[in-house]
Amino acid sequence: MKNLVLIGGGHAHMVTLSKLDTFISKGYKVTVIQPSDHHYYSGMGPGMLGGTYQAEDIRFATKRLVESKGGTFVKAYASRIDPMKRLVHLRESDETLSYDVLSCNAGSYVVQDVIEDSGSNVFTSKPIEKLTEAKETIVEQLSAGVSSIAVIGGGAAAVEIVGNIHQLCKKQVRRPPTIRLFCGRNFMSGKPRRVKSLVRKLLLGKGIEIIEKGYVKKVVAGEITVENDTTYRADIIFQATGVRPSALFSRSGVEVGPGGGLKVNEFLQSTSHPQIFGGGDCIYFTDQPLDKVGVYAVRQNEVLYNNLMAALEGQPLERFKPGGDYLVIYNLGDGEGVLSKWSIAFSGRIVFWLKNYIDRKFINKFQSN
């Protein structure tokens, strides 16, 4: 009996998980490794932080789905892959799992490179499930009189986090605390000028301070120091800077791309070990660098499913084509958003309505399996 092992139940594995019984029916054993019983949809994470959604609204019951389809669910972190012996090692365990075909959707993480002490009031934008804990902490601290909240980062994750923190605070207290966004000198770097302007206008309209005097050098005991040595105090701190692929691959002896992501070819197949496949934030696609956005993971779904089945059956593989431009919608809290596609960009409440409709339609599709 051949073994198919999946690391992670994220966006790129959604179709494979929903069709897990097709592998089982052909006599293959399927094992899914994930550190939580649920997988959280990152596109709705900031909305959960802001109180628009509850945790159960934005998560998939991975364990229940896998077991209902006849697969085996292992609640653990995959710590290392041995590609020569075809084994997956688990963190804090002597257990190993053997595979004939392995697929990785191990996600990414936020590097806490400026935070020198990560106390109970310091959070990152990932993992998404931790945003529930962050929300509870903010609500608790607001009742205790928290005076300032800081978000470090200038990209999409940072602006969505800071906007939804404002929404949460506004629901809880009459006078929200001081909320600052520390974005260095690259506010919404790489985004169209019109998008930057719309996002900035909405955040400033909420009373959020945008600090652009320099990048954050260090964070120690609630004190934030920027490059010009100006310091700020914050009772609660979020780091929402860029993400890096899971460190799993850099310690596994497989070929990796810049940043340490699993290097894959046009078939989403490891360039060094053809029995390994991958999708989502944890890969480096050799044909063209892909933005770390969920749309590519969603587009990889069918191809990854087809290629895992083909690899088990010795059939030809299907090429992944990333596709063209994609719709981007930023949830900035308070029922407002900014939409961008091609040369079109606009903001308002209708934008968040559209995002909410798209997100709920996507999650309902896979929650119902």
Topology:
Layout: E1 3-7, H1 14-18, H2 20-25, E2 29-34, E3 39-40, H3 45-50, E4 59-60, H4 62-68, E5 72-75, E6 78-82, E7 87-90, E8 96-98, E9 101-104, E10 108-110, E11 122-124, H5 130-143, E12 148-152, H6 156-172, E13 178-182, H7 193-205, E14 209-211, E15 216-220, E16 223-226, E17 231-233, E18 236-239, E19 243-245, E20 262-264, E21 276-278, E22 283-285, H8 294-313, E23 328-331, E24 337-341, E25 344-348, H9 349-367
Parallel strand pairs: 1-2, 1-9, 2-5, 9-21, 11-18, 12-13, 12-18, 13-14, 20-22
Antiparallel strand pairs: 3-4, 6-7, 7-8, 10-19, 15-16, 16-17, 23-24, 24-25
Would you kindly provide a written description of the structure presented here, covering whatever features stand out?
This protein has helices at residues 14-18, 20-25, 45-50, 62-68, 130-143, 156-172, 193-205, 294-313, 349-367, and strands at residues 3-7, 29-34, 39-40, 59-60, 72-75, 78-82, 87-90, 96-98, 101-104, 108-110, 122-124, 148-152, 178-182, 209-211, 216-220, 223-226, 231-233, 236-239, 243-245, 262-264, 276-278, 283-285, 328-331, 337-341, 344-348. With 369 residues, the protein is of the alpha/beta class. The strands form eight sheets. The protein has a five-stranded parallel β-sheet with strand order 5-2-1-9-21. A five-stranded parallel β-sheet has the order 11-18-12-13-14. A three-stranded antiparallel β-sheet has the order 6-7-8, with no helix packed on it. α5 crosses α6 (156-172).
